[in-house]
Write a structure and sequence with these properties.
single chain, Endonuclease III, domain 1, two-stranded antiparallel sheet, 2 strands, zinc, DNA-3mA_glycosylase
Length: 202
């Protein structure tokens, strides 16, 4: 039994990525592809935090506006934001106007800069890659948290990050390829090139 859906193009995807064209494009081209640069990881960490309590489709539709509003998620620029920038962001109807999340993004940019002296954000996040990745056949078998995401959340909080709970960090790990939770019947399974068919590291 599997929860994959075969599209008109003959490709198999999970139900969540099979209807909305934007989600399908994201699934086919981005989700689960390794991201290892500082800005890329910071952007995705920030967007996952904004997604908390909302649908990913909502965030994805607003992503171009988020990128413009947050100066391309350049940590050095965002870390320098002051109250005037917070007011600007809170007045921007194109993004999610949640003061706690806006302020968390600014705070996390500063924490990102602090990590540079110790290897950087990307290296820290990737250091929590597990030895095995899940092998889900159905959506119900896809985990939403793991020991590694829990440990990553704990370490990031220790380093001054906020809005980085275990579930949010697990979503980040899925998005940037640290784990592969593509369903086994999906055409994107194994797209990261990091895992063998038995779920062990390649």
């Amino acid at each position: 039994m599997s929860d994959v859906v075969t599209g008109e193009d003959g490709l198999t995807r999970p139900a969540w990525a099979s209807v909305d064209p934007l989600l399908r494009e994201y699934y086919d081209r981005e989700w689960g592809v390794p991201v290892r640069d500082e800005r890329g990881v910071f952007e995705r960490l920030s967007l996952e935090a904004f997604q908390s309590g909302l649908s990913w489709a909502t965030i994805l539709r607003k992503r171009p506006a988020f990128r413009e509003a947050f100066d391309g998620f350049d940590p050095e620029v965002v870390a320098g934001y002051g109250e005037r920038d917070v007011a600007r962001l809170m007045g921007d109807a194109r993004i999610v106007r949640n003061r706690r999340k806006v302020e968390a993004t600014i705070s996390n940019a500063g924490a990102t800069l602090s990590l540079r002296a110790d290897g950087g954000l990307a290296d820290l996040v990737w250091s929590f890659q597990p030895d095995r990745t899940p092998l889900p056949r159905t959506a119900a078998e896809v985990p939403t948290v793991s020991p590694e995401s829990t440990a990553l959340a704990r370490e990031l909080k220790r380093r001054g990050f906020v809005f980085v709970g275990p579930t949010t960090m697990h979503a980040l790990m899925e998005a940037i390829g640290i784990v592969d939770t593509h369903l086994l019947g999906s055409h994107r399974r194994g797209c990261s090139g990091l895992w063998r068919q038995d779920g062990t590291r390649a």
